[in-house]
Automatic annotation (TrEMBL), chain A:
It is a multi-pass membrane protein. Pfam families: BPD_transp_1, BPD_transp_1_N. It comes from the Bacteria. InterPro entries: BPD_transp_1_N (IPR045621), MetI-like (IPR000515), MetI-like_sf (IPR035906). It comes from Anaerobacterium chartisolvens. PROSITE patterns: ABC_TM1 (PS50928). One of its GO terms (cellular component) is plasma membrane. It is found in: Cell membrane. This is Peptide/nickel transport system permease protein. Residues 95-292 form the ABC transmembrane type-1 domain. Belongs to the binding-protein-dependent transport system permease family. Keywords: Cell membrane, Membrane, Transmembrane, Transmembrane helix, Transport. One of its GO terms (biological process) is transmembrane transport.
TrEMBL record, chain B:
CDD domains: TM_PBP2. It comes from Anaerobacterium chartisolvens. It holds the Pfam family OppC_N. The keyword Acyltransferase does not apply. It is a multi-pass membrane protein. The keyword Transmembrane helix applies. This is Peptide/nickel transport system permease protein.
Automatic annotation (TrEMBL), chain C:
InterPro entries: Peptide/Ni-bd (IPR030678), SBP_5 (IPR039424), SBP_5_dom (IPR000914). The lineage of its organism: Bacteria, Bacillati, Bacillota, Clostridia, Eubacteriales. Belongs to the bacterial solute-binding protein 5 family. PROSITE patterns: PROKAR_LIPOPROTEIN. Residues 30-43 have a biased composition (Polar residues). GO terms for cellular component: ATP-binding cassette (ABC) transporter complex; periplasmic space. It comes from Anaerobacterium chartisolvens. Gene3D superfamilies: Dipeptide-binding Protein, Domain 3 (3.10.105.10), Periplasmic binding protein-like II (3.40.190.10). Residues 99-444 form the Solute-binding protein family domain. GO terms for molecular function: peptide transmembrane transporter activity. This is ABC-type transport system substrate-binding protein. One of its GO terms (biological process) is peptide transport. It holds the Pfam family SBP_bac_5.
């Protein structure tokens, strides 16, 4: 287990380095020269060189990449092309906001999604199942920006229950959370349902039933427990997507999150900000994946044993060599 | 009773006759036995037909012609079945020609990302070792960034337009598919017939073409349909952010986004493209689910 | 079949929801009583110092962030700077003809009009508690000059000739200097001690002596401004205790927020927002904004160097029709590149005659499809550009395209000169009709749009001579004459296609009075606002 954990943790920085490299390549594809965008319309070659040197853009790409990594590790995310100030000032405060939005949404998704999914699996092919299925698909097919405006019009303007924008109190979060939630919830319920169905058909469930165990016990203690593994993976994945995928919700509800900053950075060709934001997303995605994998290993003895097995195999191999 | 038995027997004979493409027939048979699947199938076929014959239904000219006197007309106005938008352009014509754009974006990007992922997955499973490791690490790297952000970054690097959008969406769908197809391909490559082909000295490219690809079709079609609707939605999202297709090309997402401004004066500018978008995605998703059931009856009904 | 039924049912529910959302939106809106005073005539002036109304607040919408709070960094922050920093002079209630002393108690001009001596108030303090003196102006201007040298083109030198005496020497006698002085960017004075402590880039140094000070700033969310209790000027004393600048990137959300009472003021050039507000019975203040000529960038697009191409394009756009289509005729087609003083009506080169335009193109040896360029649009003008693109495409100019970026990006591209065609008013002000030229024509210009030197070097030299003459004219008549000559020269060269006269719309919550808006720039001073 410890070895597995260490193995996975070592992979994190390597993966991050590669992500940064990938974004570097992608940004270098862009035709527009950021230096020209920052300079006034009439400039001399000296001005150009000075500006280029100021942002370290005069060096070859690998050197730029190396410098960026060294600075990033030290907590310096670079200088924004747009504000010409430190990127960290503009991005740092957004992380908790994005996390909060993603966290609340995921929490509600789990609270609503798992019971609904289980219900659907238990009552397969009933009207309830069909309604949830169609509703899920339909909600998943409505673009988020439209849904957001409909919710504002209905619940803020007509009913006056919630404020229209902002992030102050808990009431502010209700509409954005639901706008973000609905399309994801649809997919989530369907996945929970299919994970449950997978389990319900297993032999041990049949055995438990034939032994005369109560249906509730079978469903919640036996089937759900085993279905939790894929559900954890799914939840982790959706949480990671939500941190950066809430672009539209952030725009419509004026929430200063990381996702919307990415759109702004792309629109203003502000590469250092884009790079920093994407890295933050990647860090969270990888962290969530790591936690999911580790909890998997914790729950599933097979993964643990595969590592123990390797170690033991090596030991026996060594012993054999020594004997030889 | 006798009749159905006879029909069944006839079908059995028919099926045995057709040695080629038997899986396709089987699938079609299962599909046609479910009304929901048929509705979805007919709906999607209709969408494709509309996209192909858009020019016959209504000339493209109508979709971009701006008429100042016909601004913001409600549906049912003379000459404008679904009304007009803020430029006096016919919404019906824009929806019809938007179908073409939407399907272009959805189908081509889904197909190409599936095709690439199938090649990558086959290469991974056939060659294994370092090649597999390298490809999968690259895929891991892309999958660390949310798909929407990948698409955004590529669109920003390449600029606006339908081809650029297709490239961006192809790329953003790649990691998920490659992972999924690879796991199937790995199981396949351990099958007896593949191993015997390898033992007989078949070239990897031959084995890929002859043994792996045909068996990957089902999972590719299933994933592909889901990806089509997802890509149409993502295209609409990018349109809302301003990275979508160029004006005045009709596209549902852009129509919806620009209609939001006029929501209070003519709600149909939002309602029509929004509903068309939602219903199309619903149809395509339903068809995908039904196809999954049809390809693998064991999985029937599981999402 | 079940599934199908449900989906139809759901579709119906969605339709109903949207109808409900769209249709009943305005049932509980404030009644349309006249609450907004006209910008130029003004309402009853502030009777003395009414004092700060405790517990009152005002929320003002902005759609972009202002990461730097220092007045010299970015002119886009004017909505903020106007509240924070005070000048020597100010325009009373935004009226450009009513210039009064603000931090200057009195001032004298030498007979030749070259030397201006200002006596500075002795009872003015920065919000940090430090006293305002002549040295503070000198220090602020030293930094401003570094960032924005353009503002000081007419100024030879400035110095503190006493603790409270400031002397400014001009290069030439200037008729417009008195109008330029109240401009925020030139004179907004910042506490020099704060600059010494934090440096000129740090927002902690954003300490002025204006009617409001920053209580808190949250990047991405906005500003909370508090009324300055020790404000020096009773005519401009703030009434509302808390003013907020709220950042909402999406205009539709902002509109809904205003109707819902979550915002107190929205200003926009979006005609549809105006229509929506009117429909819901709001009283909307209309202020003449800029004319936005569509400038040809001859540096980026080779064909624009050809006189015939530019002239042909000027003939090819029916601005009246475009205005009817996009703005219901609310923004009329422009008569000149600028509105107001210095305006010269368009010559025949701007008459709508597409066949003539095509003929000019053909005579110059161009096929319609050779004309290839992309119009850059900020979201405010996307629809206008789509309409114009359709007109040009219909005439066979199929390679004319449009691309939209957000306002900040367009501004950046404008500054860098990396665009092909851009509609832009370029700093025009009624009191300073020369500004568009200093911002768009001169080599040091920050928003270069007139690329005459790339088209015709001789004409450019001629234009620069007129520009210099205008800059140094001794009387207002001379000044205007030179500006007019310059305008007609530029118009004669067809440096831009025509445009439309834009209006800016202000909708203010009905309990707020005392709205004063500067024409063209659209700046608003929060200090005149009151809660009923």
């Amino acid at each position: 287990m410890i070895k597995y954990t260490i193995n996975r943790i070592i992979m994190v920085p390597i993966l991050l380095l590669l992500v940064a490299f990938f974004i570097f390549i992608l940004l270098n594809l862009s035709e527009s020269d950021p230096v020209v965008l920052m300079l006034p319309s009439e400039y001399t070659q000296a001005d150009y060189d000075a500006m280029e040197a100021k942002f370290g853009l005069d060096k070859p790409m690998p050197v730029q990449y190396f410098n960026w990594v060294v600075n990033f590790v030290q907590g310096d995310m670079g200088t924004s092309f747009k504000t010409q100030g430190p990127v960290a000032d503009d991005v740092g405060f957004r992380i908790p906001i994005s996390l909060k939005l993603a966290f609340i949404t995921t929490l509600i998704m789990v609270i609503l999604g798992i019971p609904l999914g289980v219900m659907c699996a238990v009552k397969q092919y009933t009207a309830f199942d069909s309604i949830v299925n169609v509703l899920a698909k339909f909600l998943g097919s409505i673009p988020g920006f439209w849904l957001g405006l409909i919710l504002i019009m209905t619940f803020s303007v007509n009913l006056g229950w919630f404020p229209t924008y902002g992030t102050g109190t808990l009431r502010h979060w209700v509409l954005p959370v639901f706008t973000l939630l609905l399309p994801f919830l649809a997919n989530y319920v369907r996945q929970v349902r299919s994970a449950m169905l997978d389990c319900i058909r297993q032999d041990y469930i049949r055995t438990a039933r034939s032994k005369g165990a109560k249906e509730g016990y079978v469903i919640f203690r036996e089937a759900l427990k085993n279905a939790l593994l894929p559900i954890i993976t799914l939840t982790g994945g959706i949480f990671a997507t939500m941190i950066g995928g809430a672009v539209l919700v952030e725009k419509v509800f004026a929430i200063p999150g990381v996702g919307f900053k990415i759109v702004e950075a792309i629109n203003s060709r502000d590469m250092p900000t884009l790079l920093a934001c994407t890295m933050i997303l990647a860090i969270f995605t990888i962290m969530v994946q790591l936690i999911v994998d580790l909890s998997y290993a914790l729950v599933d003895p097979r993964i643990r044993s595969s590592f123990a097995g390797k170690k033991k195999r090596k030991e026996t191999k060594k012993l054999k060599e020594e004997v030889a | 009773m006798l009749k159905t038995e006879k029909a069944a027997a006839e079908q059995l004979v028919k099926r045995e006759k057709s040695t080629k493409n038997s899986q396709g027939r089987e699938v079609w048979h299962r599909l046609s036995s479910r009304p929901v699947a048929m509705i979805a199938f007919v709906g999607v076929s209709l969408l494709i037909l509309i996209a192909i014959f858009a020019d016959l239904i209504v000339p493209y000219e109508m979709a971009i012609k701006q008429i100042a006197t016909d601004k913001l007309m409600p549906p049912g106005s003379p000459g404008h079945l679904l009304g007009t938008d803020n430029f006096g352009r016919d919404i019906f014509a824009r929806i019809i020609h938007g179908t073409r754009t939407a399907l272009q974006i959805g189908l081509i990007s889904a197909a190409s990302s599936l095709f690439i992922s199938a090649i990558l997955a086959s290469v991974c499973s056939m060659l294994g070792g370092i090649v597999d490791n390298i490809i999968m690490r690259v895929i891991d790297v892309i999958s660390c960034i949310p798909g929407l952000v990948v698409a955004l970054a590529i669109c920003a690097a390449l600029g606006n337009g339908v081809p650029q959008l297709i490239v961006a969406l192809t790329f953003s769908g790649l990691p998920m598919h490659t992972k999924m197809v690879r796991s199937v391909a790995l199981t396949l490559s351990k099958m007896d017939y593949v191993e015997s082909a390898v033992a007989l000295g078949g070239k990897p490219s031959y084995i890929m073409y002859r043994h792996l690809f045909p068996n990957l079709t089902s999972i590719m079609i299933i994933n592909g349909t889901a990806q089509v609707s997802m890509n149409i939605m993502m295209g609409a999202t990018l349109g809302f952010i301003g990275l979508g297709v160029k004006a005045p090309t009709p596209e549902w997402g852009t129509m919806l986004a620009s209609g939001l401004n006029f929501m209070m004066r003519n709600q149909y500018m939002v309602l029509v493209p929004g509903l068309v978008l939602a219903i199309s995605a619903l149809l395509i998703n339903t068809l995908g689910d039904c196809l999954r059931d049809a390809f693998d009856p064991q999985l029937k009904g599981r999402a | 079949m079940k599934l199908r039924k449900y989906s139809i049912f759901l579709a119906l529910v969605m339709i109903l929801m949207t109808f409900a959302a769209c249709g009943n939106g305005g049932t509980d809106q404030p009644d349309p009583s006249g609450t907004v005073s006209n910008s130029t005539t003004g309402d009853a002036p502030n009777e003395g110092t009414a004092g700060i109304q405790k517990g009152t607040s005002f929320k003002y919408w902005v759609n972009y962030d202002m990461p730097s709070h220092m007045p010299w960094k970015d002119s886009r922050g004017a909505a903020l700077y106007n509240q924070l920093y005070d000048n020597l002079l100010y325009k009373y209630q935004m009226n450009q003809n009513d210039i009064r002393g603000n931090l200057a108690e009195s001032w004298k001009v030498s007979d030749d009009g070259m030397v201006w001596v200002f006596q500075i108030k002795k009872d003015a303090y920065f919000t940090s508690g430090n006293q305002v003196n002549a040295e503070a102006f000198v220090k602020t201007w030293d930094i401003t000059k570094e960032f924005q040298p353009r503002y000081f083109s007419a100024v030879k030198s400035y110095e503190a000739t006493g603790e409270f005496e400031l002397t400014i020497t001009l290069n030439n006698p200037s008729a417009t200097f008195i109008y330029d002085l109240p401009m925020q960017s030139l004179c907004g004075v910042v506490d020099p001690k704060a600059i010494e402590q934090y440096g000129s880039e740090d927002n902690k140094a954003a300490i002025g002596c204006g009617p409001y000070y920053i209580e808190s700033y949250t990047s991405g969310k906005g500003f909370v401004l508090k009324a300055n209790p020790n404000y020096h000027n009773p005519d401009k004393a703030p009434s509302i205790e808390t003013c907020e600048l709220v950042i909402i990137p999406d205009e539709n959300t902002a509109l809904i927020a205003l109707m819902n009472g979550d915002l107190d003021c929205l200003n926009t050039v979006n005609i549809e927002v105006y229509n929506n507000l009117k429909q819901k019975g709001w009283d909307v203040l209309e202020v003449e904004d800029r004319v936005n000529p569509f400038w040809f960038n001859a540096r980026e697009v080779e064909i624009f160097k050809n006189d015939a191409v530019r002239e042909a394009l000027c003939h090819m756009v029916d601005w009246e029709a475009a205005s009817q289509l996009v703005y219901d005729g609310k923004y009329p087609a422009s008569k000149s590149y600028w509105a107001g003083p210095g305006m010269v009506p368009y010559s025949d080169k701007y008459k709508y005659d597409p066949q003539l335009g095509l003929k000019i193109l053909a005579d110059a040896g161009f096929k319609p499809e050779d004309i290839k360029f992309t119009m850059l649009a900020d979201p405010d003008f996307t629809n206008l550009e789509i309409a114009i693109q359709a007109q040009l495409n219909e005439l066979g100019l199929v390679n004319v395209k449009t691309v939209t970026y957000d306002g900040a990006t367009c501004y950046g591209m404008l500054k860098g000169g990396t665009y092909e065609m851009f509609p832009c008013h370029n700093g025009y002000g009624v009191e300073s009709p020369l500004t568009p030229f200093s911002m768009g024509l001169t080599p040091q210009s920050t928003q270069r749009v007139m690329w005459l030197d790339y088209i015709n070097k001789d004409r450019y030299a001629e234009a620069m001579k007129l520009y210099e003459a205008a800059n140094t004219s001794a009387t207002n008549e001379d000044y205007l004459k030179n500006v007019e000559a310059l305008t007609s020269l530029v118009q004669d060269e067809c440096l831009a296609m025509g445009g439309v006269q834009v209006y800016r719309f202000y909708a203010v919550a009905k309990n707020i009075t005392g709205v004063h808006v500067a024409p063209i720039t659209g700046y608003m001073d929060f200090c005149y606002l009151k809660v009923k």
